[in-house]
Amino acid sequence: MSSSEPKARPKPGPWPPAPESSPMPPSSWAKRTGFRPKFSGETNAGDSGQISMRPRPREPDNQPDLEAGRARAQPQPVAPRPEPAANGQAQGDKPPLPAPPAADKDQPAKRRRDSDGAVPKSSSPGANRRASAGPAPAEAPRRPNRSEEAVDMLPQTVDDDGFGSRHSHMKYELRDNPGLVPITFYGFQHFLSMLGSLVLVPLVIVPAMGGDHEDIAAVVSTVLLVSGVTTLLQSCFGSRLPLIQGPSFVYLAPALAIINSPEFQGLNGNKFKHIMRELQGAIIVASAFQAILGYSGLMSILLSSFILQFRLINPVVVSPTIAAVGLSFYSYGFPLVGKCLEIGIVQILLVIIFSLYLRKISILGHRIFLIYAVPLGLAISWAAAFLLTEAGAYNYKGCDVNIPASNIISEHCRKHISRMKYCRVDTSLALKSSPWLRIPYPLQWGAPVFHGKMAIVMCVVSIISSVDSVGSYHASSLLVASRPPTPGVLSRGIGLEGLTSVLAGLWGTGTGSSTLTENVHTIAVTKMGSRRAVEVGAGVLIVLSVIGKVGGFIASIPTVMVAALLCYMWAMLAALGLSNLRYSEAGSSRNIIIVGLSLFFALSIPAYFQQYGISPNSNSSVPSYFQPYIVASHGPFRSKYGGVNYVMNTLLSMHMVIAFFVAVILDNTVPGSKQERGVYVWSDREAARREPAVAKDYELPFRVSKFFRWVKWVGL
C-alpha cells in the first residue's frame, strides 16, 4: 500500500501550513458543490466562494468550466507529482488508494467528541460533485470531521491569523458552556453588537405613525421583551442555532406601506394606536400563514427538487432578494443624514473606520472596534453632538424648537428650525418622561384590527422572510454545528418563527419577528457560537425590557444618528445577501445575468409604480423619504376592485418582491447544472439520527422529540 503513495508528496505538517504549501483538500460539502477554498486570511473576506483557480504558477488541468457548470476532463498525469484530490490522495493514480488510516495518521487531531458518524445520503456522488478521472474508491468516502467543513463558510475568512479549522477560529461552538461569567459576558456582547438591528426599526416606524417620544420608548421596550422571548423559544424549540430573533428589516417596507395607506392620512388623535392595531392584525395573519408553511412540511418540499427541477430557495434566488431589502431604503438613509451633515457624516465615518480600518486591532484578545463598531460610533458622535449643543452651536435668538413650524412667524426662525430640530440632542424628552419600571403586556395598544388586503401583503412578505431565514440557518450551521440541519429542522425553525411573530403581533412591536440576517456577520466577528450564550443574553434582554429608562434612553437617539446607522446597516444587509452567491458559481455568465437583472428590475419597476400619477405638488403632507410608500393611492394598477388595486400596487412597488419573483422565474427557466445554480446542502434525516453529534445539536430538549417522532417533516 505504501508503494502506491507519491514519493514526492511530503508528510502533512503543522496547521496552518506555510504559505507555499498546498491548500487543504476540499471537504465533502465542497466536493458536492465544487467549492475550492483559497486560504489567504483576511483577503478571502470578499471571496464569492465560486470555483476558482489556485494562486500558484502551475495551473491544474481540471479547472471547472464555469459556463458549462461541470469540470473539464482531466488527462492522466505524466509528472511524478500528482494533483491532490478531495480525500488527500493522488488523483488519477492507477494503483489502488491507500487505506484510510494511513492517510489520516499524520493529520492533527481536530475531531470533536462524537462528531463522526455515518455518511449521509446527501453526500453521495451526484451532479454537484466534481468530476474526477481517477478510479473511484471501493468503499464509501470518509465523512470529514467538523474542522474540514469550515471551508464552506464566509465567517472563516474573517480570521487574519491564517485559516486553520473551525476549532481554531471559533472560541465556543454550539454546545459549549465555558461557565456563567464568560457566557454572560459573551451573550451580552452578542446582543450589543447587534444593537442597531434590534432597536432602529421602531425608531423609524413609530414617528411615521404619529407617535411621540413616550410611544417610541414603549415600543422599544416591547421590542426588547419580544426579542428576548422569541430568541429563547427559537434556541430551545426551533432551529436550536444561536440566532437572535428581532424586528427584521424585511418587514419594514410593508409596515411603512400600511402606515402611509390613503385611509390613514386624514386621521387626527390617537393615530399611532389606530395604525398600530392595523399592523398587529396584518402581522398576526401573516405569522399564522408562516407557521403553517413551516409545520405543515411545505418548507421541506420547497427545499428539495421535484417536477422540472423547480427550486424556490436557491443561492441565486436568495442573494438578490436579500440584497434588494438593503438597497430599497436608499431614499430614507442619506436624505435624513443631510439634515445635519456635521453629525451624520461623522457618525458614518466613525463606523466605517472602526469596522474596516481598525478591525485588526485587538485589545485583551477582543477586536473591540470590529465587534462594537456601531455602539462605539454612536457613543462618540452622540457625545460630540452633546458638546456642540451645550456650547450653543445650535442656539438661535428668539427661536424655540418646541414650537411647531406652522406657528413660527419669524423668517429667521423658519430658516433655522430644521437645523435645531435635527442637530440638537436635547429635543427629545423620552428619557425624562419614561418610568423606571414598565412591563409590556399583550394588546397594550388595543384589540388588533384585521383587513384582508393588508394581511395579504404581509403574507407575501412572510415568504420572503422565510427565504431570508433559510440562508441564515445554512451559513450559521456550517460554522457552529457539526452538520447543517435537516430539512425537517429547518421547517421546524420556520414554523416557530411564525408562532413567535404571532407574539410580536399580540404585544405590538409594529413588525414581525424573524431571524436577523446580521447574525452570520456577528458570529463571524465575535467568534461566539454557543447556544447557551445567546440564551443568557436573551434573558438579559428581557430584564432590560422592564426597565423603562432603557427604552427611554434608546428612544432619545437623535434622528440623524439613526439614519446614519441605518446607512451602514442596510449596506451590510445588501452585502450579506450577495454573499450567498458563494454557494453557486458566481463567475458563471448565467448567474451574473440573473442576479443583475433581478437587482436592476428590483430598483426600476418599483420606481415606475412609485412615480406613476404623482404631480410635483401632490402629497405635500408626506415627507419626501416616505413618498415611495404611498403608491397604493396612485399606482398604475386600477381595476374595479379596490382591495386588488391596493395589493397589486403595494406588492409591485416593493423592491424585494420584484427581486424574488424575477430571480425565481429566471433561475428555474434558464438551463443550468446543479453545480452552476448552487444548492443549499442539508443533512439527511436518517443519517443525522444515527450520528450522535447531529442529534445533540438539533434534537429538542427535555425529551420532547419522542412525542413528535411521527411528524417526520419537522424534526430529525
What would you say about this model in short?
With 716 residues, this protein is mostly helical. It has 28 helices and four strands.
Written overview of the protein:
There is one protein chain. 48% of the residues lie in helices and 1% in strands. The chain starts with 27 loop residues before the first helix and ends in an 18-residue tail after the last helix. The N terminus is likely disordered. Strand 1 and strand 2 form a beta hairpin. It contains 28 helices and 4 strands. The protein has a two-stranded antiparallel ribbon. The chain is mainly α. The longest helix is centred in the middle third of the chain and has 29 residues. The chain is globular.
